[in-house]
Amino acid sequence: MSEINNKILAINPGSTSTKIAIYEDAKEVWKKTIQHPSEEIEKYKNVADQYSMRKEALMSFLDEINFDVKELSAVVGRGGLLPPVKSGAYMVNEAMVERLAKRPVVEHASNLGAIIAYEIGKPLGIPAYIYDSVAVDELEDIARISGMAEIKRESFTHTLNMRAVGIKVAKDLDKSYEDMNMIIAHLGGGISVSVHSKGKMIDIVSDDEGPFSPQRAGRVPCRQLINLSYSGKYDKNTMKKKLRGKGGLVSYLDTNSALEVTERINNGDKEAKLVFEAMAYQIAKAIGELATVVKGDVDRIIITGGIAYSDMITQWIKERVEFIAPVEIVPGENELESLVLGTLRVLKGEEKAHVYDLD
């Protein structure tokens, strides 16, 4: 008897696009980025209001390629901004849809992933999942203490890609993710670093408390930040943009493109080299910081994300941290593939999906 093939539709909504893919088991069959013009998005007051528009665009594409949704085994959406959840898969249910549609922790396009997946899967009688939501929180209690009683450290990070590459590297080493200690740095528009111990992400350096990135300022001196905020020169929204959107490479070099910065360095731009190397320096410091969490017992350091394609920056990081543990470079942000592979493990009985029942 031939093995049954699972056909899975993955949905990853972004601010001005909806990325989708159809997989047959682990093989990509179709992939599409549906663009949504800014003027179209701006018509909607809330993210949830975009649901019909995005779903219709998705279904139109499926019609174009003559794909019958009745062939699907499951649908998986990018996990949105829920209250803290566990890692892995969650079955999307009405409680999750209601929370994301009406009471999201933060308004974000990823909140639509679960909603669209659920509404496609429900009439077909097939399961809808999310996998490794942005809101995955496995921090140990000691990691939640910030130093200011009014502020509690939270876990918002690039969980999906981080855990996916952690599982992949462990498998490539013929080991189990649950038996290893890893430090994983995700280098993209935002940069975050996490430590994974025995299958749990127990601490992180988030994109607002660690390295600066192409668009984000990262950890900046608090006293100077307070003085700047109350200087009368800037309003609250402007300061928020200085931290996220106009920080990092944009602030120093007026570009968010690592490729452009690399080209400038190759053409002899010393300022670009200093700033770019400083970004690598700060990433290495964050990796070293998290090595203390597991008392130096680190099996692998993994560098991933889009900027991990840069040999220049990965080499700078590697030179500073390889004394801690061997370094693996896994470039890219394979979010759709990660969603599918997680769902596939559930369908094959290798993992069990959680049931969402939080208020």
- Give the proportion of residues in helices: 25-40%
Strand content: 15-25%
Largest sheet: 7 strands, mixed
Structural class: alpha/beta
Query: What is the CATH architecture annotation of the largest domain?
Result: 2-Layer Sandwich
Number of strands: 12
Low-pLDDT stretches are: none
Summarize the helix and strand pattern as letters: EEEHHEEHHEHEEEHHHHHEHEHE
- Average of per-residue pLDDT values: 93
Short description:
The chain has 359 residues and is an alpha/beta fold. It has helices spanning 38-41, 51-64, 94-102, 111-124, 159-172, 222-229, 236-243, 248-253, 258-266, 270-291, 311-321, 335-347; strands at residues 7-13, 17-24, 27-35, 74-78, 89-91, 128-131, 181-187, 191-197, 200-205, 300-305, 327-331, 354-355.
Textual characterization of the structure:
- The chain is of the alpha/beta class and about 350 residues long.
- The chain folds into two domains: about 5-135 and about 335-355, Nucleotidyltransferase, domain 5, CATH 3.30.420; about 160-330, ATPase, nucleotide binding domain (Nucleotidyltransferase, domain 5).
- The protein contains twelve helices and twelve strands.
- It has helices at about 40, 50-65, 95-100, 110-125, 160-170, 220-230, 235-245, 250-255, 260-265, 270-290, 310-320, 335-345; strands at about 5-15, 15-25, 25-35, 75-80, 90, 130, 180-185, 190-195, 200-205, 300-305, 325-330, 355.
- The chain has a seven-stranded mixed β-sheet, sandwiched between helices. A five-stranded mixed β-sheet has the order 9-8-7-10-11, sandwiched between helices.
- β1 (about 5-15) and β2 form a beta hairpin.
- The protein is globular and about 55 Å long.
